[in-house]
Amino acid sequence: MLPDNKKSYQMSKEEYDEIKERMKVELSVLQQQVIAAKIPVIILFEGFSASGKGTAISSLILNFDPRGFNVYSMREPVGRELRKPWIARFVERIPAAGRISVFDRSWYSGLTWVREEIISKEDLHSDLEELKLFERQLTDDGYLILKFFLHISEKEQKRRLDRLLMDKETAWRVTKADLEKLKNYKKNLRFYKSVIEVTDCPHARWVIVNAQNRYYMRATVMQRVAEELRVALHKCTTVQPEQEVVGKPYVSKKFTLLHTRKIQDYELNREMSQEEYNKKHSELNDKLQKLHNRIYLNRIPIIIGFEGNDAAGKGGSIRRVARSLDPRGYAVHPISAPTSDELARHYLWRFCLRLPVTGHIAIFDRTWYGRVLVERVEGFTPQVRIMQAYNEINEFEYMLHKWGAIIVKFWMAIDKEEQLNRFKARENTPEKRWKLTEEDWRNREKWDIYENAVDDMLRYTNTEFAPWTVVESNSKLYARIKVLETILDAVEKRLI
Amino acid sequence: MLPDNKKSYQMSKEEYDEIKERMKVELSVLQQQVIAAKIPVIILFEGFSASGKGTAISSLILNFDPRGFNVYSMREPVGRELRKPWIARFVERIPAAGRISVFDRSWYSGLTWVREEIISKEDLHSDLEELKLFERQLTDDGYLILKFFLHISEKEQKRRLDRLLMDKETAWRVTKADLEKLKNYKKNLRFYKSVIEVTDCPHARWVIVNAQNRYYMRATVMQRVAEELRVALHKCTTVQPEQEVVGKPYVSKKFTLLHTRKIQDYELNREMSQEEYNKKHSELNDKLQKLHNRIYLNRIPIIIGFEGNDAAGKGGSIRRVARSLDPRGYAVHPISAPTSDELARHYLWRFCLRLPVTGHIAIFDRTWYGRVLVERVEGFTPQVRIMQAYNEINEFEYMLHKWGAIIVKFWMAIDKEEQLNRFKARENTPEKRWKLTEEDWRNREKWDIYENAVDDMLRYTNTEFAPWTVVESNSKLYARIKVLETILDAVEKRLI
After folding, report:
1. In chain B, which residues have their Cβ closer than 8 Å to the Cβ of A65?
2. Is residue B211 part of a domain?
């Protein structure tokens, strides 16, 4: 796997200078083409300490327009970063379309930072699977991922660290951890090997660079980047983007889907008297208030998503939930059409930015399910990508679940007559009129198409770790109580 | 100043319930009007521990649509927050137009978190001045700021903390710091009094609420918020927004402006031979490379801004600077038209988000001076606000300076003929053609109007702590060397 260090990968300064000059023109032209083709590019560097990651990055990016890339030097997480899923701070830094994110250490180093020590291959397995999913989700979305591993021998690493230590200008760069790692060179090498082996995928290959000779290393990095950009650009211009293979929603076999009924099989007219409502509401309110303390103390992150027909009462239900919570421990995220920044990235990106920290509650008023609802119905996104989204969303929620989050998802359902009544009521009530838009009427015309999309959504994303709750909402009182009860159930199950 | 605690501010549950019902309707209607009028609203709560800030916030926000506000519970800064100006994390959370940000503890608490202990009135003075500027900048921009201080007596505070401590469900809420503060109640009271006295300004008044009785306190908070929202909405609809008092650039007397020449008085044809360039460039490059280490070790933040005529060579110069730097220690921020999120907030907000951490370098390709250049020339912003911007920008840069930042600002100047030559060269070079847009030609037609704006900018924002450097750029070689030398000078001056 790793390049043989006995063999010499030498290069003279003259040879390097010549390549460098050529690359300067080539890479800067390629960058302009990447911008024009709107390809988001991730280039990450991993490798032994003192293997020359900084040098590699410096010489590479000199060829790029600095307005088109960012370099992220990732170190161990601190502060609030420790209270988010460990992958989140990498996700936050993915590039927008046409931009390049260069990572000096990446999620591969991130993997080891969240642990006491290097883990055996078996323990690591599930985390690496998660990383592979993460990378595959990006490449499926059109991202290009280049992964470089810079390799030097034990002897060479020792020589370089010693030299840095000797000069007082550079000695501070060598940390205790570096020296510790040098001691465990062989163990580390085995670790890297196994990680690379498992995560070397067709969509995101590793490039292992022999870094004994700095000229050879720098030239290799530049040439490989140019080559990969060329291939990506070529693909981009030759593949027909409008493949109209509609297909069916795809979900990987590893997800067990729970049994789901269709919306039309629900009895949406569940009633509740005002009296019963008052009594239950005050009970549930007290319970949730108390539980919020324990959620905080136990550092459990909670994610609550609301979807539903227009005028089904999402807002009202969210208010009732919010009332029982300490305002310092939750946030409501209204989700509307994505901004230009959000549109230029993977569709799950904006939700990653809004995840709660541990012990907090994030309430989403509309969610990532917009992908398989409005985007599917209105054709904002190619159908092929929509069909992949069911699986991607399951993967996303599984990641949240593994992190420790409680996930509660509501579909607030009303029938067509009830919606008409509510629309009319809104029209006739001055302080509610703002809630009703032209779009609501347009959506109503597509009632059946939406209902199909909802049925598919419920069917293909109803998992044990992130189950759907359909809330029969023709009666607002009944609906609000069911929402509160469902949240309480989910939390109590965990806290017991 | 603070309300007399001997007097009783009592309220019965019945009285409160009645007010609460009334406020429910009133506040929710007012919020809709705030959204329609696009007023950004900040409501902050300060006060003794256990004075009921959480309760006050809970009962207030129940009246609002949760999709229109955020609650920020601010605690002591950690991690990277400590490497930004202390006010930055508050700035990041200012609301967009039509939204409400509620702060549970605010910049007033922030003031004390960055210090070992409470400081004497004199020491505090300059920090409070900075806070006042911050608030005034926001209100000048149309923000509404409501500041609540919840006041309880020493006896009452002790009683409340004791009660919390007795119940094991709530005991964790009482921190050592709380008990410490109780011991120093009188000293703290004096401190709060002096802070409130200094920062009670017409544009951002304090409301001191007697919080001995929770009903009274909650009712008062709701009523005051409603009142202030009504006043703000009234102002909004009656004041003529299009006051065409053009006026002159305004700069407060406290800023000493350095002497500045007009652009036309510069000799833009400064030459440099390729030979001299090569020699100097390699020297400067080496120096900057070494200094970058020391900048990092000394934790100095550096902010470099590039402005200039179209095609003056900003990009080329930025590349030359970037080449001498460790890519892990700097970031280039290209600034173009603001996104919708950015447009909905104060114009300096997006630059606050891009400040470097200590020890890092932020290079801005175009800057906050867009306010007094393109926005002034194209009339994107009312002239009254533009004329205030010179002073606001000086205040902003002064804040950065006080934080410890080195600020370097370049105006890259070429003459009209040279620009024409460069435009034509770009048209004729395929790999450079993307650089030239229709807009460049349109801007060129307004050459004289732009030059006036540039002269005003140089004249009114040239300060000792953030001086302008005009770079004669008809010769690219000369310009690049001057840029590097200027940066080196500024850094060396600080490091010696």
Report:
1. 315, 319
2. yes
